[in-house]
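Model: You mentioned two targets. I'll fold them one after the other.
Researcher: Yes, keep them separate.
Model: Target one:
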Amino acid sequence: MIDLATVVLKRNFLSNKKSGNVAEGSSNDTVVANGTAIGMEMEPDIVLKKLRQAEEDTNEDLGLASTGFQKEAHVSNAEFFDLNKKPGAEITEQTHESQKSLIEVDTDDSLILDNDREFPDGGLRAWSVVFGSFMGLIPVFGVINSLGAIESYISTHQLMNVSSSTVSWIFSIYLTISFVSCIFAGGYFDRNGSTHLMILGTLFYVGGIFGLADCKDIYQFILSFSVLSGTGTGILMTPLVSAVASWFLRRRATATSIATTGGSVGGIIFPIMLRKLYVEIGFKWAIRVLGFICLSCLVCSIALTREKSKPMVEPFKSKTELIKWYLSSSFKLSYFTEMKFVFTTLGASFAESSLTTAATYLSSYAIARGNSENVAYLMLTAYNASGILGRYVPGYIADKFLGRFNVMIITISMSALLCLVIWLPFGGSTGALWAFACTYGFFTGSILSLTPVCIGQISKTADFGKRYATAYFVEALFNIPMLPIGGAIIGDRSVTHYNHFIIYVALLMAAGAFCYAVSRYLCVGIRIKKF
């Protein structure tokens, strides 16, 4: 009788979910199997289990999250047990309280929007995808982490007569186009997978790097590096991060953190390599060597990085339908009606804008305070080296102990504090600047690794690519003015102007921590819990 009851319940629940009457259906349509009302022949806890199992099974039919029914079932099941009990039968207060407790526990975990059974969360194939993503993110995030090594050279050589705010547009446009490219890459990934995206992104990315080697004027830097490499960066970023998310759920923060340490590895190698090659073979061949290394890493990544399963989709009937689909699915305004997504996106935008602005000008700041170019590049390397631990350790703590949002709030807050208590008052001391580079690199390491994980925590895996891309579109809008504003604040590179710049970076980071805290509050309130 139990199996037949589940079938009847699932049918009624499916009908009510489609019509939007879940609560009503769960109380009134929990009907008869073999002439006996469900709930009259079974214990209440058993019925609750069957309700929950039917809801989970129905998710696979509808592609819906397993949250809404559980919340509404708390009321409707109470009504059900009250209305359908046998004459003389009593549900004790203790039993009712145990039912309430059980439902509330499920509601606390309701933000886990995917079925655990769909994710291997380990195994050779899953970890090979993590390694493939790691290899791809060595150039993709590694160059982002090494922008300071490029900025400090071209601003004192090819573009020495150009103002800091003008030079900063090269990197601002690069980051903006990178994030905008994520929009269409996200929709394509959700529909078609990673392989074609990664091949196309590699061609754009490596082509732009090789073009950078021959640039002399600012418009050439913008066309080659900002536009071409920026487009490739955005196309590659989405599949490299999203593919890992398709293999992991409970260990997603750890796996993503391991993959994104590739960015720190690139950030360690590239500044040291470029500093040495600038002197030995010149800028042109130094950048070409960088291009060949990036190409090798990306070829390896293409071979290993795959999403867990190819989506089953129908082909488009026309090119018009294709264009409409990409425009409607790659960026969804409807996501911004969900306030926890809005504040998570704002938090990521403020934090990453602060991070990239500070990292871009760290080497120039060190030189302006009297340090040699050699020391300035080594500080950038130390910053990225500490970022390896900063990516893995917070990710591990997030999965095992504190939760993703809690760790993100802590690390971003510490990053803002470090700017104000070490960098601002003691930046003139070489020792203090070394201490800042190492500690700041550690605490900001989690920003790039946990941002997609936090977005994934409030998203279904089927929608992750689009939501990730939509969030990064907002980040693109943030990056348009943030770097140029930073360059304008620096102005003539005086100590006073650099101090104003440090305050600006700290305020951006503090705003990021505040927005993540608001998003956490919207999800779980002020309770002290792992989230």
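Model: Target two:
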Amino acid sequence: MNFAHCLIYHLPCATRITQREMIKNILFDFGAVLIPIDESLTWSAFQELGAKDELKDQQKLFQKYEKGKISTSEFLAQIQPYFFRKIYPPQLGEAWNSMLKPLPSERVNFLKRLKKEYRIFLLSNTNELHINHIKQQAGLFEYKQFISQFENVHYSYEMGMRKPDAEIFEKVLKDNNLVAEETFYIDDGKKHIKTAKSLGIETWHFKPEEDDINDLRKVLSKLHS
């Protein structure tokens, strides 16, 4: 509805803006939102290889890897001391990737339909091992089909920054000429959602155990209702 219609029919323009007109961009997290993950599987795999309990406390090391501050070979070498015996890099990499479940085949069609109405983007805290595994697991053709549905894909290890830091959201907004208030962000991480909200981005705190990404349209329709 344009301004002329408001004048002719004496309708309050400000209250007649629809949800579809307000939200123009959708920004997705990857893990747990578009691809199922189970982080406990990685710890179980590490334990089978003889991991020490201290490995759980190496969050700074994991974050360095997610920011691309260290290479894959450096990352695997740096977690090796947290095992009771020598573990070869391929075994460590396989254990690290255990959390990743197959990329659902229906995601491509879901995104194809969505991008007819919105600009869609991907923003993920991830790393080279995980992305290479997803490519191999899905097959390069299927992975490329999936990735091609997004206008832009933003991986933390390629950007040198990670969520929940505000700078990564600000960069995505700036690089894609997005208005925060016209952008809808979906993530399972509370801290990530909190940062996005603080920047004026509309959000959906996704709970994998009870939410379904196929309900996205329902969630959008309730926004500002």
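Researcher: Noted. Anything on target two?
Model: Confidence is low (pLDDT under 50) at residues 1-17.
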